Recover the amino acids of this structure.
């Protein structure tokens, strides 16, 4: 399995878990479906980009940094649309991005491996 597919899978799963944590805030429970869908899409986008980076560059430290920055960026854009809850949105986005960046570096087929 290549690194981009690994990124999509882990990004989707981690994004879904990230969105599920919104359940602990009673004021957003009516919007939980939209939050889960949006968080999953956000996680998949981070996974695609982190997987592409991991495919090109084989460095776990750089992969974690790229994943963290991407997760933080997308989470900031979501928080900007909400005009509130910046810490509650951006902190999990940062962590999910870092985990996705790590996993895409450690799993999947890198660019320099040829299948026979």
């Amino acid at each position: 399995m290549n690194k981009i597919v690994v990124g999509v899978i882990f990004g989707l799963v981690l994004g879904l878990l990230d969105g599920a944590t919104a359940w602990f805030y009673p004021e957003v429970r009516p919007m939980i479906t939209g939050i889960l869908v949006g968080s999953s899409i956000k996680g998949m986008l981070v996974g695609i980009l982190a997987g592409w980076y991991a495919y090109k560059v084989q460095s776990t430290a750089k992969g974690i940094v790229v994943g963290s920055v991407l997760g933080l960026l997308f989470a900031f854009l979501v928080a900007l649309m909400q005009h509130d809850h910046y810490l509650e949105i951006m902190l999990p986005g940062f962590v999910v991005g870092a985990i996705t960046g790590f996993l895409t570096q450690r799993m999947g087929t890198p660019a320099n491996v040829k299948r026979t």
Summary: The chain has a mean pLDDT of 88. The helical segments are 3-20, 32-56, 60-82, 86-106. The CA atoms of residues 57 and 63 lie 8 Å apart.
